[in-house]
Amino acid sequence: MLPEYWLMEGEQSSTGALLDYIIENHVASPLLANRAASQNISVFELLNKILESMVQDLNSRFLAALTEDIHVLPDFHGNRSPIADPKVTGVVCGLTLDTSEKQLALLYLLQCRELYGTCHIVEHCISHGFSIVLPRESESVLLGAAILGAVASKKHSSLSDAMKALNVAGQI
Fold first, then answer.
1. Contacting residues for 72 by C-beta, under 8 A, at least 6 apart
2. What is the C-alpha separation between 13 and 11, in angstroms, rounded?
3. Strand, helix or coil at 120?
4. Which helix (H) or strand (E) holds 92?
5. Which of 4, 64, 140, 144 has the fewest beta carbons closer than 10 A?
6. What's the CA gap between 10 and 124, in Å, rounded?
7. Residues 67, 103: contact at Cβ < 8 Å?
8. Which residues pair with 87 in a beta bridge?
9. How many whole angstroms separate alpha carbon 58 and alpha carbon 55?
10. pLDDT of the chain along its 172 residues, tens only?
């Protein structure tokens, strides 16, 4: 679709709902929510800080290595592609009795990584020295629609031009 770019679909329309489910149903969730509120940050920001700390503390090769012993089949709400089976269900394998915030952070990371199907892409990019750039815009569906609309209305002559005009790089 875009020369020299990799694209990845989100795979699940219930991505946010699944992340909320994983976080809200973990025993450490209330404590985590209180800590996040006391620091005036979101629960997601706190989980990301915990993960960053774990990478440092465990001298991990990279973030994804933290979940090498936990695996997920993320189809908690069926699958539309590639197998198109709305009745398929999700599985988490490798759970322990650990109820800590760190374990919740690992489950959060695992779901984020698997829901977006980026594990192999991220690892490939990192191993080949490429950077991963996330958009600053959190509403990616709306951003994509705006980009397509800008090209369709001839406001911009190409997807690449519209992306440059409407998107700003966020986290790298």
1. 90, 91, 92, 93, 110, 111, 114
2. 7
3. helix
4. strand 91-93
5. 4
6. 18
7. no
8. none
9. 5
10. 666 666 555 444 456 778 888 899 999 999 999 999 999 999 999 999 999 999 999 998 888 889 889 988 777 777 655 556 778 888 889 999 999 999 999 999 988 876 555 555 667 677 888 777 777 777 777 888 899 999 999 999 998 899 889 988 776 6
Cis peptide before 82, with omega less than 30 degrees from 0? yes
Please, what's the b/e burial string for 54-83 (b: 16 or more CB within 10 A of its CB; e: otherwise)? Answer: bbeeeeeeebbebbeebebebbbbbbeeee
- DSSP label of 71: E
pTM of the model: 0.60
What are the contacts of 18-23 at 24+ separation with CB within 8 A? 18/74, 18/76, 18/77, 18/90, 18/111, 18/115, 19/108, 19/111, 19/112, 19/115, 21/76, 22/104, 22/107, 22/108, 22/111, 23/47, 23/104, 23/108
Q: What sign has the CA pseudo-torsion 97, 16, 18, 27?
A: positive
Residues 6+ apart with CB under 8 A from 143: 135, 137, 166, 167
